[in-house]
Every structure is written in C-alpha cells, then in structure tokens.
Design goal:
The chain is an alpha+beta fold. 56% of the residues lie in helices and 19% in strands. It is built from 5 helices and 3 strands. The protein has a 3-stranded mixed β-sheet with strand order 1-2-3. A hairpin with a 2-residue loop joins strand 1 and strand 2. The radius of gyration is 16 Å and the shape is elongated.
Length: 99
C-alpha cells in the first residue's frame, strides 16, 4: 500500500480479487454454500441437506413439505442475501425439494 492511499475494507479487496481470478464462478458457488447457514439461520440450516448447485440454480433438500413451503416462500429474499454477501448474482434461482 502506498502512502497517502486510504486503507480498503477486506470486503472490497475480496470483491476486486474475485473479478480477476479464473474459475471465479466455482469459487463464488463455494462461498454461497459456506455462507448459507449464516444467511438462513441455524434452525433452517438444520433441516436442509444436500445443498448444491445445478447450473445457476441452488438446490436445497428439506425433510418435510412444511419446510419446503417455508423456504420456497422466502427464496427470493434468501437468494438476494446470498448474492449480496458474495458480491455477485451467482444464485439465479433457489429450488426447494422435500425428501
């Protein structure tokens, strides 16, 4: 860092770094999977399994139809929070399936 430059936040530095690396999409998908518990909370996370990407769709399997309905109703807000957290619109859609 040169003298006279203001320090940047780690969040901004990470976003700039992400713009320049190859395989950015895979890394961003991994970041989404990592922050999922933080975004949805411990209770919802505890009923989710087999969280994975199919293309740009984030697929979540839940234990019951009631949880499927709950997450389905909030899928747009969850997707926005996930995308905001990783600084990219990597999640285009959330698909919720009950086992």
């Amino acid at each position: 860092m040169a003298f006279g430059n203001k320090p940047q936040s780690m969040d901004n530095l990470l976003k700039e770094f992400m713009k320049r690396i190859p395989h950015r999409t895979k890394l961003q998908r991994g970041m989404v999977l990592h922050v999922w518990p933080e975004i949805v909370g411990e209770r919802i996370n505890s009923v989710c399994k087999n969280l994975h990407f199919e293309g740009s769709r984030l697929v979540v399997e839940v234990e019951t139809a009631a949880w499927r309905h709950e997450i389905h109703m909030n899928r747009f807000s969850i997707a926005k929070k996930l995308n905001d957290k990783v600084g990219s619109k990597i999640v285009k859609e959330i698909v919720v399936r009950s086992a």
